[in-house]
Amino acid sequence: MYFDFKTSYNDDIRLIRRPLSGLFYAIAFGTALFSPLVISEFYITESSAIFVLGIIIIGYMISAGMAGLVGLGHAAFVGVGAYTHAILLGAGVPFLISIFSAIAVCALLGVMLAVISLRLSGLYLAISTLIFALAVEHILGSWETLTGGYEGILVPDPIIFGTSFASSINYYYLTLSALVSVIILAANLMRSLSGRALIGLRDSEQAAASLGINVLKTKSVAFALSGAVTGFGGALMSHQIFFITPEAFNMMLSLQIVLAAVIGGLGSITGALIGAVVIGWMPELISQIKALLPVSIRYQPGPDLVIYGAVLIGFVLFEPLGLYGRWKKIENWLLTFPLDRKATFAKTRTYMKSERV
Amino acid sequence: MPDIELFVQSLANGVSVGAIYGLIALGFVLVYKSTEVVNFALGDLLMFSAFAGWSLSVALGWPIWLAVLAAIFLTSLLSGIINEAVVSRIIGQPQFAHILLTLGIAFTLRGLILLIWGADQRSLDSLAPDTLLEVAGITLRAERVQIILITLVLVIALQFFFRKTRFGLALQALGENQMAAYLMAIPVRRAISGIWMLSGAIAAIAGLMLAPLLLVDTNLWLVMVKGLIVAVMGSFHSVPGALGAGILVGVIEQLAGVYLDAEYRDLVVYASFFAILAVFPKGLFGGQSAKKV
Amino acid sequence: MMKLRVAGLKQYFGGLKAVDTVSLDAKQSEILAIIGPNGAGKTTVINAITGLRKPTAGTVWLGDKTITGLAANRIAELGIARTFQNIELFEHASVLDNIQLGFYRHRKVTLCAELFNLPSARAEAVNARLAAEKILHYLDLVSWRDKAVSGLSYGIRKQVELGRALCSAPSFLILDEPASGLTREETLDLGYFLRDLAKNRGIGILMIEHDMGLVSRVADHVIAMNEGRILAKGSAPEVQSNADVIECYLGSEMV
Ligand SMILES: Nc1ncnc2c1ncn2[C@@H]1O[C@H](COP(=O)(O)OP(=O)(O)OP(=O)(O)O)[C@@H](O)[C@H]1O
Ligand SMILES: [Mg+2]
C-alpha cells in the first residue's frame, strides 16, 4: 500500500516537508526565541553553548554524514576558527570581518585537508584526519609568536557596530541567529543537486563519477564547506572560552563531535541538533550521575570517560541510526496510525561488504 | 661526543622505539587482516598492561619477570573478552561502526584505568639490567638492546607461527577470505578471538617495554597514534611491513629530535606520514587495486 | 547520427591480457550486445570506454571526438551513461534521489546559488524532479519513489539503476548484464524497454548480456568475446551459429 501525502513537486522542495517536522521546528524556534525571558542566566549561557555546538556538528555532518568522509579531526577546524578570530579581533579587526576571515581560513584548511587526503578513503581517511588534527594542535601550540603557544590568548569581547554582544542574553541571540542561518544553508545544500552529489560520493564513487560528478572536486567542496561551518562555530565558541589554549581543541573535542553526530544520527540536520543538545547537556548529566557515586571517586575524571564510552558503545550496538532515526520511526507510526506495519523499518539483510583498502 | 657516535646512538634509539611502534602496528594489523576492524582501544590495552605490570611488581612485590608475564596474560585475556563481548556483535557492519565502537571501548577502558589507578605518574622497571653495553665501540643502554632483541625474537616466532603451524595457516586463510575459511572448517569465531588475544598480548609486550622508557601514566595510550601511523604506512599488510614501517618512523622521529628540535619531533613524523600517503595512497606495501566494478 | 567507436582497445593487468585488441562500433538507435563467457573481458571493455580505467592502448571516439583516457565524469558529461554489473546505487538514498542524480550532468547553477536557494537553483531543482518523475513513470517505479534503495528487491534495484542512467538523457547507454538476476517477466519487460529506448528515443545501447533469449530478441548486432579477443561479429543467429563461438560455449546451455 502506498500513500503520498503531497500534492505538488514544490511540496518536496520546500524546506519543511512533513507536517510533524513543521510543528517541531515552529515549537523549537518559538521556544528558542522567547525562553530567555523566563529562564535563568545559567540556562541562557548553557543554551548558547548548545547553539554553537549545533553549528559545529552541522559542519561535521556535511562532510561525514552527507559526503561520507568520516573524519576524526574536526577539532582542528574549531581550533583554527577560534584562533583566527581571536587573533584578528586582538589586532583590532572589526568583528564581522574577523569572523568571515575565520570562515575563509577554515574553508582553505578544508581544501588543504582534501588535497592531502584526496586519494584516501574510509579507514585511511579517518586516520589521516586524526593525525591532521594532532598536527594542527601541535602547530597552534608551537607557533608562539602568533598564537601565544600553550600559554593561550585572551579573546576580546564580541562587538558588532558598537553594540556589545558579551552579555549572556545578547550572546544568546547572536548564536541563535548564527545557528538558524547555518541550518538554512545546510538545508538548502541538502535539497540541491550538489548536496545529492555529496551523498552519491558517499555511497559509490564509481557510480558518482559515471554520472558526471567530479569526485575530487566534490570532495574538496565537501571539506571546504564543512571546514567553513565548523570554523564559524569555532570562532563563536572562542567567546565562551574567553581564554583559548591549544588543549581546548584536542582529540577529545574531535571525538565529542563524532559522538554527537552518532547520538543524533548522521546525515540529518535534526540529528545534528539533537546530538548538540545531548552532548551539550552531557557534562550536566554526568555530574548528576556522579553525585550518586561515593565521594572517593566523585571528583575524578574517570567516570566521565566511562559514561562517554558506554554511550558510544550503546548507540553503535543498539541504535545505529541515532535518536533521530528513532524519532522517524515514531513519526511514521503516528502519521500512518492505524495502518502502521512493523516491517517498514525492518532491517534488510546486510552482507559483509569488504571495505579493504 | 663525536658526530658519528651521536648519529649511531640516535639511530639505535630510533630502531628500538621504532620496534615498539612496529609491534603496536602489528597489533592493529593482525586484527584488521582477519576482521577488517581497526581496534582503536589498542592504546588503552597497552596502557592497561603497563598499569597491571606496575601493580603486580611494585604494589604486590612480585618478581618483575613474573609480573610482566602475568600482565601480558591479563591484557591478552581482556582483549579477547572485548572481542567476544562487544566487537563480535557487529561483524559485517560498515567500518565506521567499528571505528566508533572501538573508540567507545577505548574511552571506557581509559576511564576505568583512571578510576582504578588514578592520574599519578609511576615508574616501571625494565626486564633488562640498568647497564651500558659497548657494541662495536658505541655505548648503548642495555634496555634498548633488549627491546630490539625481544622484538626480533617475537617477529621471527610470529613468522614461523603464520607460515608453519596449522593454526597460523588457518588464521592466514581467515585473513584472505572469511567465507572460504569457514568452508575449510576453520572455527572462524574461535580463531578471531585467538587473533584478538594475540593482538592484545603483542600490545602488552610493547607497553611493558615502552613504560620503563617513559612513565606509567594515563597518557600512555597516546603512542597508539604512532602505531596507527605505522600501520597505515605499512598498509595494514604484514608482519615485516609493520616492523619495517615502525623502524622507519622511529628513526625519523629520533633523528628529527636530535638534529632539528625536540619540539618538532612529532610534527616531522606527521609530515612524513602525509608525504608518504601522498605518494603511496595505500601505504608502502599496498597494491594498486581500485574497487572492481 | 552519432557513433561510439572503439579501435584497437587493449587492457593489460600485469601479464594478464584482459582485453586484447578489441574494436567495435555502436550507433544511435541500435542495440549492440556483447556476449562471452565469464572473464572474457567484457566488463573491462566498457570500463575503458566509460573512463573508469585508462586503457593500455587503443582509441575511443564519440562522434568525431576522441574520448580515450578522459576522466569518467567528463565522459558522462558528454552523454554516455552506464549501469554496473553488481549494481552501484546510492544505497542510503531514496529511489527518487538516486534517479534525480542522473540529471547531474545538466546542472548549470553555482554552488552559491544552491546554498542560498536562489530562483535559478529552485528552477533547476524542479527540472531535475520533472526529469526524474518522467523516468519513474516510464519504468513504472512510481510506487517505490520514496523508498530507500537498500531495502528493495534485486529486480527493482536494477530498474532504478537503469532509470538513473536514463535520467541523464544519454546519447549512449551502456548496460552491464542488465538481465542478470531478473525474473522471466522482468526480463521480458526489460526487452520492451530496450527496444523502445533505441527505436523510439534514438539512444544507442551497448549491452553485455548472458541471456541469449534476450539478446536474440533485441540486439541488432552481436559481438562474441573470449579471452580478451573478439570471436565473432554479426547478427544474433550468425554469431550463435559461428563455430568458434559454439566451441567456446561447448557444454553450456547456449548450444
Ligand atoms: N582491476 C583488475 N585487476 C586485475 N585483473 C582484473 C581487473 N579487472 C578485471 N580483471 C581480470 O580481467 C579479466 C576480464 O574480466 P572482466 O570482468 O572484464 O570479465 P567479464 O567478461 O566481464 O566476465 P563476467 O561475465 O564474469 O562479468 C578477468 O580475468 C579478471 O580477473
Ligand atoms: Mg563482467
TrEMBL record, chain A:
This is Leucine/isoleucine/valine transporter permease subunit. One of its GO terms (molecular function) is branched-chain amino acid transmembrane transporter activity. It is a multi-pass membrane protein. Keywords: Cell membrane, Membrane, Transmembrane, Transmembrane helix. GO terms for cellular component: plasma membrane. The keyword Cell membrane applies. Pfam families: BPD_transp_2 (PF02653). It is found in: Cell membrane. It comes from Pseudovibrio axinellae. The chain crosses the membrane at residues 20-39, 51-77, 83-116, 123-141, 171-190, 257-282, 305-324.
TrEMBL record, chain B:
One of its GO terms (cellular component) is plasma membrane. Keywords: Amino-acid transport, Cell membrane, Membrane, Transmembrane, Transmembrane helix, Transport. The chain crosses the membrane at residues 6-30, 37-56, 62-87, 99-119, 145-162, 194-216, 228-252, 267-285. The keyword Cell membrane applies. It is a multi-pass membrane protein. Pfam families: BPD_transp_2. The keyword Ubl conjugation does not apply. It comes from the Bacteria. GO terms for molecular function: transmembrane transporter activity. It is found in: Cell membrane. GO terms for biological process: amino acid transport. PANTHER family: ABC TRANSPORTER PERMEASE PROTEIN, BRANCHED-CHAIN AMINO ACID TRANSPORT SYSTEM PERMEASE PROTEIN LIVH. Belongs to the binding-protein-dependent transport system permease family. LivHM subfamily. This is High-affinity branched-chain amino acid transport system permease protein LivH.
UniProtKB/TrEMBL annotation, chain C:
Signal peptide: none annotated. Keywords: ATP-binding, Nucleotide-binding, Transport. GO terms for cellular component: plasma membrane. GO terms for molecular function: ATP binding; ATP hydrolysis activity. SUPFAM superfamilies: P-loop containing nucleoside triphosphate hydrolases. It comes from the Bacteria. PROSITE patterns: ABC_TRANSPORTER_2. Pfam families: ABC_tran (PF00005), BCA_ABC_TP_C (PF12399). Residues 4-252 form the ABC transporter domain. This is Arginine transport ATP-binding protein ArtM. It comes from Pseudovibrio axinellae.
